[in-house]
Amino acid sequence: MSRIIVVTSGKGGVGKTTTTANLGMALAQRGHKVAVVDADFGLRNLDLLLGLENRIVYTAVEVLAGECRLDQALVRDKRQPNLALLPAAQNRTKDAVTPDQMKRLVAALTKAFHYILIDCPAGIEMGFQNAIASAREAIIVTTPEVAAVRDADRVVGLLEANDVKRMYLIINRLRPAMVEQDMMMSVKDVQDILAIPLLGVVPDDERVIVSTNRGEPLVLAENPSSAATAFSNIVRRLEGEKVPFMDLSAPPDDFFSRIRRFFQGHKP
Amino acid sequence: MTDPSVPTPVTSIPHATESVSVPQVRFRGEGGKLLLLLPPERETATPTAAWTDLWQQLKQRLNAAERFWQANTPVHLIARDRLLDARQLQAIADALTDAQLQLKRVHTTRRQTAVAAATAGFSVEQQPPIVHLNQEESGQALAEPLYIETTVRSGVEIRHPGTVIVLGDVNPGSSIVADGDVLVWGALRGVAQAGAAGNSRCLILALRMEPTQIRIADFVARAPQTPPDQYWPEVAYVTGDGIRIAKASDFSREALLE
Ligand SMILES: Nc1ncnc2c1ncn2[C@@H]1O[C@H](COP(=O)(O)OP(=O)(O)OP(=O)(O)O)[C@@H](O)[C@H]1O
Ligand SMILES: [Mg+2]
Hints:
Protein name (chain A): Septum site-determining protein MinD
Largest sheet of chain B: 6 strands, mixed
Number of domains of chain B: 2
Strand content of chain A: 15-25%
Family (chain A): Belongs to the ParA family. MinD subfamily.
Distance between the termini of chain B: 12 Å
Oligomer: heterodimer
Radius of gyration of chain A: 18 Å
GO molecular function, one term (chain A): ATP hydrolysis activity
CATH topology of the largest domain in chain B: Pectate Lyase C-like
Number of strands of chain A: 8
Bound molecules: ligand 1, magnesium ion
Largest sheet of chain A: 8 strands, mixed
Pfam family, one (chain A): CbiA
Number of domains of chain A: 1
Number of helices of chain A: 12
Low-confidence stretches of chain B: 1-22, 131-139
Number of strands of chain B: 17
CATH architecture of the largest domain in chain B: 3 Solenoid
CATH class of the largest domain in chain B: Mainly Beta
Number of helices of chain B: 5
InterPro entries (chain A): CobQ/CobB/MinD/ParA_Nub-bd_dom (IPR002586), MinD (IPR010223), MinD_FleN (IPR025501), P-loop_NTPase (IPR027417), ParA/MinD_ATPase (IPR050625)
Largest interface: A-B, 21 and 26 residues
């Protein structure tokens, strides 16, 4: 059965699209047939990050209107033939599609792809509802900032209410030096609040920005950057492998974190 | 003897209207069946927002208390004056079925909801609007405690005309408003209000007291600026000088000295 995973965050600009592009590419490199779906109608970016902008002919909106077939709208990646993009329309708003239409699109994709990754727009309005409608799993991306974590927590609550039971956490743009100086939330601080399984931590890395601008996902690079290694590890964990976390100094275990872990183990 | 991390008491701000307890979605056992009580319609909310809100509360209640009823317990939906269409009623019935509960009957004061329920195949009881089923809330006695086993996440507000017990964390951005006590078997990081109907003898207890703000009756206190190095189970209560916080292990002795 295909895995349908929405990449979401609540807050904008925390790295959803970057994550979708890199996980999609890394999964395809591992031999899976992967479709990445841009659900950010009106503010699409995923095509840019994948360097596929100039190859878009049709979008999801034309498919839904019956103006083209689904496979005509899918953009295959030349570098990695296992990867395909279903683009969003740039000239429409988030109300251009409904949750039911998204469900139908994704259901059609499951016939040809093992993994369907949905890049969710920021916010919790219509675009979010569309993006999560068909998802069975969710990757929550947050940065170690109070506002981002607050929004992520809200989103976890909404996903729970929408029966997306399997959720994983990615903490993006961590700066260990700042954590050390107590100027940034630590991985443990974030986990304490969100209390969902951690899939990985991606360091803040300027090569992410370079790769964004070039339209080349980091995981394609010959010499992997620390962020690229983090994304590769995340994909392995997503596939059930036990991969040790990159060394990030953690405070010693105390009584309360033990209690909290006890709770986490007993979540319904 | 008092904890150095005592928050600054702010005395007696006027009783805000929002602290009047509006009941939320909740279950109540009655003679072998469960009543699923919906809060009355609020004028402010748009229909979609009202439904989304209702739905999130219902799912949360179901997720949080599953192990408190037996399989196939019949449920009566007390919809009061809420407008529900056939699809929404079916969604509620399906959610109950997933929790091994059976929707048997819909009580409503709205003709439209009654028609939708009948069309969807549920038995219906339509009462005239005056016979409000929320009479139980108008008395002085508190409702039975609300027990929830979940993480209360940002954006969630739990209001209950009785004591609220949370087995889990209460996260920043969420709030608990109880006419009785608030007990948190976990970290209290959001806003908690006890004695919301005015009883200043109510308490707030938490394994880890890190609230954004706590209120008891008309008293308000904020968390200290600098968090303490270590946490103990603590109790917040009202004294002549406003809200105090004490270690749970010291509490009863201290209260006796007052
Ligand atoms: N680990 C990182 N290190 C450095 N820069 C990063 C990192 N992750 C993301 N960025 C940068 O942050 C910006 C926002 O990233 P991205 O577009 O992936 O976020 P988003 O959550 O999809 O935003 P939106 O909510 O607008 O869709 C980009 O410029 C990206 O290059
Ligand atoms: Mg994006």
